[in-house]
């Protein structure tokens, strides 16, 4: 979405407030949009940063103190431009800044600043500090912060949720769901319209204006693909607009011939396969466990003193009811990117399974074995 479109959303909100509705946005579909300052205010609430500090931040003054650093990390997580493991997500971050049209070197100077602030290969255990320094580089060298609410990417669980919603709305027949659940997508009118519904619901396709390639680009921020933004792609999509006379088919052909292979190739089929499995009640399938770092860990939550010295690591398998949650007991497993890059497994984890009746670890101390009391 262009910055201007973001502002239109804000104007719409303003218009709403004049009609006597409350000031909440009437959000279309299931897409997420948020402004930087809204994310900042969210995080000030989560982290209980005193309200008087907002004035400082609103005038682009982000002092070098632990509270502000962890606040910016929270903003980054909130808008998904920050990840404790992989650092700043450029495809998302870039869109919150407007470069000066006369500035030809904003990208190089930002990259230089990032390299200086966070040398590659360095082990930064301090994710608040790293997030803060990254933000400062963009603020100083990339451009001006855009005040509008902008589209930011979903996580995959919300994508699957959106696909499941569309399966229900369109009453996709079970026969097709079975096929989808095995990764096969027969070219049927239902398949075409399901894709259209999915793109609509996740906010990357609009009935009147077609595909929103900028949103697709930031949606696939983990594989930033400039081809989404290329004139060739624009031309191909433009040629398809209205040429087939029926929008489900138009979307399907655009996906098959132009967009499908960009970014995360045929990501939608992957999502639809998972959603079809859920819709059929196949929830306990085996899935590879993915790793996420959390910092600070919940038990040690005190961002003021801690400043991310005690980062925990969470292992989550996003399989609905069949999800396994592993938490490091020692609470230390930090934002050490190099350890992650070496592919080291996190040891010393507790396992909590919600899928069946077997619990690897129940309550920590039973009543009868009271050798734990140190009196
Ligand atoms: C952070 O990045 C890692 C590695 O790229 C990825 O596996 C993980 O899912 C990301 N975490 C979040 C919350 O997106
Ligand atoms: C930016 O960096 C790239 C690669 O390091 C270089 O090729 C390019 O000339 C630089 N651009 C400017 C304007 O300095």
Automatic annotation (TrEMBL):
The keyword Manganese does not apply. GO terms for biological process: sensory perception of smell. Coiled coil: none annotated. It is found in: Secreted. CDD domains: PBP_GOBP (cd23992). Keywords: Disulfide bond, Secreted, Signal. Residues 1-23 form the signal peptide. GO terms for molecular function: odorant binding. One of its GO terms (cellular component) is extracellular space. Belongs to the PBP/GOBP family. This is Uncharacterized protein.
